[in-house]
Amino acid sequence: MLGYDISWAAFNIIEVMSASKFTFKRIGYLAASQCFHEGTDVIMLTTNQIRKDLSSPSQYDTGVALTGLSCFVTPDLARDLANDIMTLMSHTKPYIRKKAVLIMYKVFLKYPESLRPAFPRLKEKLEDPDPGVQSAAVNVICELARRNPKNYLSLAPLFFKLMTSSTNNWVLIKIIKLFGALTPLEPRLGKKLIEPLTNLIHSTSAMSLLYECVNTVIAVLISLSSGMPNHSASIQLCVQKLRILIEDSDQNLKYLGLLAMSKILRTHPKSVQAHKDLVLQCLDDKDESIRLRALDLLYGMVSKKNLMEIVKKLMTHVDKAEGTTYRDELLTKIIDICSQSNYQHITNFEWYISILVELTRLEGTRHGHLIAAQMLDVAIRVKAIRRFAVSQMSVLLDSAHLVASSTQRNGICEVLYAAAWICGEFSEHLQEPHQTLEAMLRPKVTTLPGHIQAVYVQNVVKLYASILQQKERDSDTEAAQELTRFMVERLPQFVQSADLEVQERASCILQLVKHIQKLQAKEVPVAEEVSALFAGELNPVAPKAQKKVPVPEGLDLDAWINEPPSDSESEDEMPKAIFHDEEQRHTKQQPPKADEEELARRREARKQEQANNPFYIKSSPSPQKRYQDAPGVEHIPVVQIDLSVPLKVPGLPTSEQYVKLEEERRHQQRLEKDRRKKKRKEKKGKPRRHSSLHTESDEDIAPAQQVDIITEEMPENALPSDEDDKDPNDPYRALDIDLDKPLADSEKLPVQKHRNADTSKTPEKEDMPVTEKKSKKPKKKEKKHKEKDRERRKEKERKGEDLDFWLSTTPPPAAAPAPPTPPPTGCLEEEPRVNAVITAPEEEYEESKRQEQDEEEEERDPEKKPAKHKKKKHKKEEKPKDKKKSKKKPPVNDEVEEPLENGALNEEPLPPMSSYSLLAENSYVKMTYDIQGSLQKDSQVTVFIVLENQSNSFLKSMELNVLDSLNTKLARPEGSSVHDGVPVPFQLPPGISNEAQFVFTIQSIVMAQKLKGTLSFIAKNDEGSTHEKLDFKLHFSCTSYLITTPCYSDAFAKLLESGDLSMSSIKVDGINMSFQNLLAKICFYHHFSVVERVDSCASLYSRSIQGHHVCLLVKKGEKSVSVDGKCGDATLLSNLLEEVKATLAKC
Fold first, then answer.
1. DSSP 8-state assignment for residue 971
2. Is position 357 within any domain?
3. For position 1022, which CATH number holds?
4. How confident is the model at residue 897 (pLDDT cuts 50, 70, 90)?
5. Angle 478-482-484 from CA coordinates, rounded to 5°
6. Per-residue pLDDT for 79 more than 70?
7. How many Cβ atoms are within 10 Å of 708's Cβ, its own excluded?
8. What does the pLDDT average to over 443-450?
9. 1064 and 996 within one domain
10. Is residue 1028 within 8 Å of residue 1047, measured between CB atoms?
11. Per mean pLDDT, which range of 113-122, 916-925, 1053-1062 is the poorest?
């Protein structure tokens, strides 16, 4: 039944969908997926049936319901079933989870309000143990992010983890595409992506993955074009890989290679120009799409040196091109290449005019208007070329019968429009103006399209005014009167034109000429007055000039000029569809059937008309007869060509002779330049070797003619035009939702509920134990939901900080951030970190399952809780009022509570802390610094130095140099020696601060060390410039090599039980600070995270950039603190504990 309307069977399809047998149900859903749509009336009846199938114990019933629903989901179905589908995302069967995740994309499109409440669960599926579910979640999120990437920037760390750990090429392609969309929004992300993407390019053998990696590297390098100096190696790598794709025999790979090469061309044209030979070879490819892609590349590869060569190659392809589509595209590309950036690559405009004239010989082109526009533009903008252009256009007008053979719209006859306009506007350059006037007034001109005839008429009078002025200047009165009589004779043919514009112009001009004829009879000079009608030049006007005209004050363009007449009452009472009904009645009447004699008579008349029509193509004989009577090759008749008609228009020069002339001109320029250089060197007396070797650059080639008019005219007080609005019918516009905002109560998904009647309870019922149990359960759920909402709000507030932390950025030293400690263990499931110790998704999934089971057991039997939960309950029972107070605290204090996992809350506020330390300072500049490492690079750390100008001078040419040690070395630009400094990529006006980043390579991290360094700069003020320097000592502590890494309590216990760690301890007396603030200082200054805390005892964890695990146990006594530590390296541990001891001594 495909292709037939079966909407009449919609109700029967619903009946089959509700069958209990799976085979019938599957057929019903298949039929519904083929014929149901948003306009189906009975689709609302399927809601309950689909909900029932979604909750079926059979996974196949649920699967077929999800598959069918994805094809005919409507906004109403999406709203009613969103909660049920979201529940299935946590189903025990991966088959159902995968389908539920995939259909959520269709639900989001139809019901965008479900995106925010469903997104946290969708995000959890990124770490699902089943690879199919994980791939489905990646697919959905990447499709959402492709349309609105800025809303998914906070997921970058999670996707980076998936990209570096996944082996599924399909998932990698999706993630890499997403990073390509995110990079322009966050350039820092590109710096992290370069290395893993480059590794994938080197290692992968899959061409699809290779292409996506190259594509994303190109996007990264475009976003980092100013901030990343050493990216030429990456560009060369991409170009080399793309050359491999282009040289491949697979047409698809060749096309993709050319497509990616065009993206590199926009920012790095020199890297692509080296492969010009390969791109020109693609012009000979049999695939038209590849030829078109190669044409797009040539647009960006041209320069002053190779423009003529490339256009010559394209002109040969124009002659050989088969099919008008590709030939028209070649023509368009030739013009685009030559005219780009106000003709900056053209050095000889006579050559370009000859190219345009050669293009007029093309038959059947649809771009005659484009050629005409170029002729006009060049003649107007380049004043030096007008004489040559007028001479060429006059020849075209004289041979108009050859060009005007094709009179279709936008055909090659459009060039006559430009030719007539140029000869009329710049008539002073014509050699034989009278001959051109006669050519423009020939009777055959009336066969041209109306708009061309109108331009002919308008410019004939300009030409007439010019000739008339010349005749009067020569006092040749008879010739002037003869010219006027000639105009009066020829203009009536235009007055009789069927085109109104031609009629109007011809009538006006004819009356003008007749009036001139009367004045000439009285011997009155009229040439000056006629010429004054066309004084001034017509300059190019901007495309949106009309749109930018300001509306005069007091003018309302939307107001009626005349109020429309009000309809009478009798007309109002008439039915609106009266004409529609008449039309329907009229269409139902069938024409009377003609008899056989009438049909035969009509048939004979039609055949007779076709036989006498010379333009009618006669039908070919039947196939059988054609094959039997087909003559051989030797019997094909040969027709002699009449060579009296020239194949080329006489009087028009070819472009090849101008190529030779241009080469000679450039050669003379080079010789003249070398001669001047020799004279200069002889005067200086310092001759140099290899002076004859000279490589010509684009700047060295001086054009023969300059473009005089560059800007376009705009109206006075022009207003900036508004940008075009986005498409209101775009289905993805509604999904542009900020996912970082807290979820409001109004945004929760609708859930189907029974109506609860308000009944008053009796005291007897309240005393019953069963009802007591039921009344406690919703309270527990309510408390649990409140706690989850509070944790979710904290998570939303931390998202930006987590992304910044992952991207290795820190706040300025003036800020006082809270300690960057991780959330408790329960929150780690909702917000996965890239650098987590337990990276296997199966273990995280099992952990979440265990916690859910514990919560369910607590609800069923409170006495079966673990020991630590009893302590929590005891604390809550002791201080219920304190808990209420803590809920009402402002959100600032919520961040203070983050390091806590067990134990009471402390209301004492944290002191301001900053990770930046003073490096050096003088009267000019103040330097503060911070050191951070990365788990991705085990032998590198980044030093962030904030430079603040404290003087009234302008600081420039800043350069930082450090004396390297055997262990630690400053990463310098390629080609630099160990004694060279690293330039600071900015300048500092007075009172301004900015941050610079410097990378150091580290061999061993177990010992702290100091490096001597110098910052040199130039201080410029009103009195002059002075060279200054500031010495400093850069301290690399062992803490600098640690990275704050979350850790689960069970993984922490296994680590301690392994027995592979060395142990050490310290004790500090005289500590009066609260344990809460003490932990915050240790975590903030030494990059630790809290694993677990009970009363005045806490377990802390961190990890070094080289993978050393560091575990601390901090215990607080009355006025002392003891710290026990375990680490894989004893030297590193002892040095770390000494640094912790120094921090505690300041408390």
1. -
2. no
3. 2.60.40.1230
4. very low
5. 120
6. yes
7. 11
8. 90
9. no
10. no
11. 1053-1062
Question: How is residue 417 written in tokens?
Answer: 């429009």
Task: Please list the residues that pair with 960 across neighbouring strands.
Answer: 982, 1015
Distance of CA 951 to the CA centre of its chain: 43
Q: Are 427 and 434 in contact (CB under 8 A)?
A: no
**Chain CA centroid to CA 705, Å:** 39
Pair 128, 841: CB distance under 8 Å: yes
**23-37 pLDDT per residue, tens:** 999 999 999 998 898
% of residues, the chain, pLDDT over 70? 69
| DSSP state letters, 979-1015 | T--EE-SS-B-TT-EEEEEEEEEES--SS-EEEEEEE
| 907, burial (CB in 10 Å: exposed 0-12, middle 13-18, buried 19+) | middle
Identify which of 776, 778, 788, 786 has the alpha carbon closest to the alpha carbon of residue 852. 788
Residue from 324, 262, 326 nearest 298 by CA? 262
Same domain, 1032 and 1057: no
Q: How far apart are CA 802 and CA 525, in angstroms?
A: 87
Residues 385 and 522 in one domain: yes
| Residue located via tokens 């992968």 | 204
Count how many domains the chain has: 5
Report the b/e string of 621-649 with b at 16+ CB within 10 A.
Answer: eeeeeeeeeeeeeeeeeeeeeeeeeeeeb
Inside any domain, residue 209: yes
What is the token pair recorded at 738?
A: 């900020």
Bridge pairing between strands 1024-1036 and 993-1002: unpaired
The C-alpha torsion from 1132 through 1134 and 1137 to 1139, rounded to 10°, is -70
Amino acid in position 887: K
Cα 693 to Cα 679: distance, rounded to the nearest angstrom: 17
Chain-centroid distance, C-alpha 942: 30
Exposure b/e, 969-996, CB count within 10 A at least 16 = b = bbebeeeeeeeebbebeebbeeeebbbb
**C-alpha dihedral over 155, 160, 165, 171, to 10 degrees?**
70
Euclidean distance between CA atoms 483 and 636, whole angstroms: 54
Q: 909-967 pLDDT, tens per residue?
A: 666 778 888 999 999 999 999 998 877 777 888 999 999 999 989 898 899 999 888 88
Whole-number Å distance between alpha carbons of 436 and 426:
13
Across residues 94-112, what is the average pLDDT? Answer: 93
- Count other C-beta atoms under 10 Å from residue 444's C-beta: 10
Domain that holds residue 434: 380-532
Q: Tell whether 121 and 14 lie within a shared domain.
A: yes
Q: d(Cα 388, Cα 1019) in Å, to the nearest integer? A: 58
* Overall pTM > 0.70: no
Residue where the block lists tokens 């009802």 = 771
Q: Which residues contact 744 (CB under 8 A, 6 or more apart)?
A: none
Higher pLDDT, 785 or 826: 785
Give 729-753 pLDDT, tens digit per residue.
Answer: 666 666 666 666 666 666 666 666 5
Residue whose structure tokens are 């991290």: 1005
- Angstrom distance (rounded) from CA 844 to CA 128: 9
- Cα–Cα distance between 490 and 77 in angstroms, integer? 75
Cβ density class 562-576: b for 16+ within 10 Å, e for less = eeeeeeeeeeeeeee
Could you tell me if 1095 and 1056 lie in one domain? yes
What is the C-alpha to C-alpha distance for residues 163 and 209, in angstroms, rounded to an integer? Answer: 12
Structure tokens at 1062: 């060395």
Please state the φ and ψ torsions of residue 1000, each to the nearest 5 degrees: -120, 140
With a CB cutoff of 8 Å and minimum separation 6, the contacts of 902 are: 868, 871, 872, 1092, 1093, 1094, 1095
The secondary element (H helix, E strand) that includes residue 1027 is strand 1024-1036
**Tokens 């506020």 belong to which residue?**
909
